[in-house]
Design goal:
Chain lengths: ~260, ~260, ~260, ~260, ~260, ~260, ~260, ~260
């Protein structure tokens, strides 16, 4: 069902390939089965970036195993998200012992296997947070975007309660290629940024707050209902998702 | 248990009042029982304003009956909230036929029985809305505040998606005595206004919006989580409550 | 605080402008105040597209008034969303009587004032729906994107319950510049499309469904939790928001 | 009221049983009362399988007591679910000291008392998970089904974000007797599997995820709203329930 | 990727088929595209039953069009669910004018195109409701199951508040092949039936009730938490889903 | 399993009854099956009161049929709740044409078939409402309690916002046998009454209110969390349930 | 405002009391102010039982202080609920050192200060639980009821999944004065017991369960929607409230 | 855009200021950028009070850094809220080592940097709590109000279940300038206080309670729906916000 099917069929027609060989090629597993995980080795080809490993709920052994499997297949940088420092240390030792490059970013809780590319893309991604407490989510977004080859500008603690702090950075926002607006509590940052920016805005609600913040629900609903156009939303605390989406937008090009 | 009890007791002590008469005075009903409603005739004395009738779920007959009962007791202006135009017409005919003054404000869905006072109070109440659709709630707040004797400035459609529309009115907001911030959808207006104003802000979430606005829940949570200080919140669409609260604040004075 | 402030200040310095004239220019209202709405006339300059009027909760008179105000300022196409056919007829007559071009798209419930541009942008926007009932939301997205100058391909009724219907269109999805995935009920379309596409995916939950669909909540949560990367979400039934966001992404360019 | 009542009554008629003896037999307790639990000894007869003990919230002593009571009554295998490793160790020592067979499956957190039957039933139960983190729930389902006498095929980490991983196993899914689809986050696996399979699908939402996954609510709603026919749902993380239901379906036969 | 791919490839190998022809066959559309809907013509082959049309939100014209498309492809009976009487009348006239058989079941709001099969399957499906108000949902389940070739026994109004009404039918429940338990309000019927029956139980929460029934949420949660084993749940008011699932279970057989 | 089983068994023992006859008697249907409803004819014996018919979602024909079935079995008064005036008129004509007594209470939306008893019981049931809009629910409770043979005192519109209105009636509350506290919005009445009364208090949340009242949810949660002891709660708007419960408490006696 | 006011006034009239003395008597504090708590010393007089101290969130010192204050005023037994074993040990030492009687019931987490009365009341309170895990809540109810002077029968683990376990105890339920039905998960026990019992039933939802049990929400909604009459509900896990309410009902008598 | 712009422009006009200098002054940063936080140094000027630091989620280092930055700019008292004792100790040592005054209030979890003013304002702020467990929130409100220069009266444990405890303090409530009503569970205190007081009431729901209190949701909804006028609400457990709002109201004056 892929675009190569015609080529394979033509090879069969030409007698260069038996039916059995053809079947094998068509069905060739585009993933490696590790028992506990099916590692997707074709993704970079299909989507232009490497596999991302969701670290939470996986053991250090599983993470190292998957990472090695991908790295061996020459997939470039592999991101491991939601990984605490302790697990990262274990993964590091395993991979280093096998001469596989690995670096850990603790504020972002991200580990990166392999080389990260030079910044490229249409322009600069601006990451703004409403408060100081939103920084871990922002770092997850920033490190993700940087690892995928983007220039990132961090504007932290520019919440709307002191609107002049945000307006001070108006120029950077207007020059941005993509803006990631990250806020907990009432999440108003997304709407205000959305009204200022003339580029796509990715809004990330965070679980920062208490009481009626309901673990990020308040910010989530607020951002979904943004009265500004050009704002879309990812899951609560999903810094990775926002960084990835921003990267895709910042690397738009004719196919 | 009231402050007059001592006076009554002293009168008994002086023999000017019998025990029975004293008991009667102490127990004197501070309300009139109409069967379907207990009209509170002492409230103006206690709280400085007249009874307010919640019109929804009451028949025109019940409304007119209660209104007449209060008006007869010389309580000054009576507000009837949440009353549709049709019911208002019926109430009007009944009250006018008995020479009781009554006026209906259709955008605010409020009827007023009797005379409204001249504007007084510490300063001006500013009422800001995020959009055009929030106007009915804003008018409920405005007419309430005006009927209780306040000067009101209306700033409609100054939502945060075009922040310069709001900043244009920054001076009026900074000069206000109290600000009422009314918005549906993401309700970000309250936080932004709360960051600009140096007076109390009453936030009113509205049910304007669709989808994840969940009938005002989004704006409500957003406003409760406002990162700005000096913001408190009333029920969804409760323009009356905001107008009343603003009035109380605008008439603060030493007791 | 804008980039022109220096220019104005230099003119004052050169004596070409008095302080008063400068102040006037700086404060020059970037919107027209119609009483019930503050029309934002600078938005096209700031964000590259014209004002969009949210038609729900506005009268035909208000809509026509705002539309005329914008059209007179030469802002190009104006979109009026969430407008029913009856209101559209009234708006049409008012605008046509003043020789202002207006066309109504009933499936999308959108009216367009003025001329729409030729398709431009990086590539083609693909709009996929899970079922037949999602079409109105999809049309809102499609007409929005087209009115802003994008080529749109509609893939309707390709829900995941018959995955081969979706896989059949795999090539179109892989060639897309942006994909808008629209689905109600369980909203699984977003994840599956997100796994196939190598471009940004905008997911739109719809209120299609019953029972535990809870008016779109099920699809909304599902899409926010998408296990595929490169998916972001807009409000329930917000076809306009998705079309607008897709347009911005499809017109990405160096600044 | 049971089917034996006629037999007992006929015995009374024949004078073989007194009214009192008959009453005793009819009322004969079909359970053993341990004070803290009423152990149901007739269930195997009634429903074809042994008692299952819900281990959470019970002490090791209570669990061992109930298990022994059932085992003594020759009920075959007894499953103890939701039992952590520490408690299992205590139960093991108590039961082994009384020569009662007991084995613990730690990934599934299930203990089994007595002998498990050979695989039987109509066909094979396929258990698919969306990700690696769903495996504990999947193992609960798998061990349950195996302990009740079913052949089980595990297909782990075949989530829809890389649809080819799932399609690779299409044949196994199409050959299955029953499929158990287990997924957290957006739970889309159930719908996609439901569209491929031509057998009953039991969907199990898991609490895997974060933010708007709301502890499994997102997957639960998604699965309940599945647009595929032939899908029914059990409680969040209820691997046991799914395994049990699949067993019943896989052992369907004329009565 | 289907089981016929080898056959096709072998034909190419044998020179009986050109690569192009092979490609065409492999890609042959297994559905007809009507523009507003992609009719799935292979489903009966794949899943053993015909297409089901979800009638709500589709026009009579769309329904008739889809129905005709399927009927023409000789797919046997087609079910149209959630169709009101008025729409059914329109569909009927269109189909009858084209000599296509169509019958409407008003209590179940189901229309059936074509011939329904004789009852077959392992045993009898028992459908029990908690009250009289649950009957429409029960009829949807019953007509669905009957149209797919099952014998159905209806036990209506046997709610647990008068447990003897249910116990009276204990024998029928114990003899059933599958039981569908339908209840609104507190949904306790599912648990009680689940404790009595020794066959799979499909629970259907209904939106019957008021107040804290929250449109079926109470019954839904109750059923998901059933303490009885062998109970799985479908969406609120989803009589069709239950009937379909019951049919699949009742037709289990070795493949 | 009933207390009469011994008697029946003894009759068999004495040869007065055959096994078959005994079985018949034991199984004798304690309800009449009307097809759409199983009318419970033994309930009065079991619970001391007659059947209650939930009128909502039943046709006038069904109601009349059930009512007649019960009335014919000499069960005394039958209550039909949640019946609108129009349906009541139809039921009235049907029953009167068959000389069955029927009266309709429109404020309570209750119809009563047959004779209601004289007031009896331990004392007087006091029914208090927070506002005028709660009266329909209060009347449902009052008419239910009266129809079952209780003296009822109505205290309407004694909400806590004017606490003196409630304190005025303190004596009646303290003398009550049972108090039913009915309120919407914040539902504080239950707690305040619970603090004053020294008898059981049944709290009924109502759906009166708007916005964050969420159709009675606010009052429901408030009442469930009452800090006063001796308060229990029934469903939102469930006046009947409260009246019935109060009746049972007011008729407590040694068995 | 109390019934003694007349007596006091008459004493003033007779010159036996000065106005000041009278005022003092009328205002005489009916509670002792400990700074952190206002101990209500009149409650036993007003409501027939002693103060109950909610132990959670209070320190051992505060608890002992309040308990001593009440005990000194000769109020009979004082219940301290929600107190863990450690805190109880501290309270015990403090009170015993002051020769105040104190006993702790660990399963119920209740401490009792002073003497508990002999069982009295109309009949016996039956406390039934759905499972073994509900026992702590049941013990809270049982110890409360016993401490207030009631005979209690415990029926634990009689959940509806094995309905015969419950029916076995039918006679005890039918003879009960009040039944307290305690269950988590789906909470169906309340409805089934409500259908069997002919006395008031107090339902207590518990937080037992997982997943869609949502910490007791499922059982709560289920119980509020019970289709059985004569069932009212208290807060989740509120064993005390149920025991107290049952006590009040079991001690009903003419005033 | 500020009021000083004219002055700056006039200085440019007079040649006293160059365009560049003017631009600098207009853009002069009104905050200090610490990297992790943008400290707002103009706020006291704008809003009359100093910056407040939300301590939760910030390290002791960050807190001390921000506090020092503000204190150095001579902003008067700085409040640090939601700071636990351990963090406070660290902050204390850092600040004291730099001779900056710092005091910690442990019940309120507030630290204060610098000097607090003498009480001023219109009157006295009364803070009432429903129970003993609400005291921490009340202390947060009290210390905040005191630190901003207000006289505060604490009325703790005056919940509505013993209404006489509250009525005893009626006079203090009626004399108050502002009342802060703090309660968890059912939150009825706000409505009762709102009915008594003739001043603005700020209601604070607390997370005190269990079960259906849902972490403060019950009290929140209750307070939002208060039937008393003049009540507005802040976030759950937001003692600071209430204290701040009360301060603003208590310091109302003509501008």
């Amino acid at each position: 069902m892929d675009i190569d099917v015609r080529a394979i069929l033509e090879a069969v027609e030409r007698g260069e390939l038996s039916a059995d060989e053809a079947l094998t090629q068509i069905k060739l597993k585009p993933f490696e089965d590790l028992g506990y995980a099916r590692v997707d080795l074709h993704r970079r080809v299909r989507q232009g970036v490497a596999e991302v490993i969701y670290g939470a709920g996986k053991t250090a052994e599983q993470i190292a195993g998957i990472a090695k499997s991908i790295a061996t297949a020459h997939q470039g940088a592999v991101l491991i998200t939601r990984m605490d420092a302790e697990k990262a240390e274990d993964v590091k030792q395993t991979l280093h012992s096998q001469s596989i490059k690995f670096e850990y970013y603790d504020k972002a809780r991200i580990g990166i296997v392999g080389e990260t590319p030079e910044p490229s893309g249409i322009g600069r991604i601006v990451i703004a947070t409403g408060g100081t407490s939103d920084i871990p989510v922002a770092e997850e977004a920033a490190v993700t975007a940087e690892a995928l080859g983007n220039e990132v500008l961090r504007l932290y603690d520019v919440g709307v309660a002191g609107i002049h702090r945000l307006l001070e950075s108006k120029e950077e926002i207007m020059k941005a290629s993509v803006v990631i607006a990250i806020a907990g509590m009432e999440g108003a940052l997304a709407s205000v940024v959305g009204g200022i920016a003339d580029c796509p805005v990715i809004a990330v609600p965070t679980s920062v707050g208490y009481g009626a913040a309901f673990e990020g629900l308040s910010a989530l609903l607020s951002m979904l209902n943004s009265c500004a156009s050009g704002v879309s939303v990812v899951n609560i605390d999903n810094g990775f998702g926002a960084g990835y989406m921003a990267h895709m937008i910042n690397h738009m090009s004719k196919k």
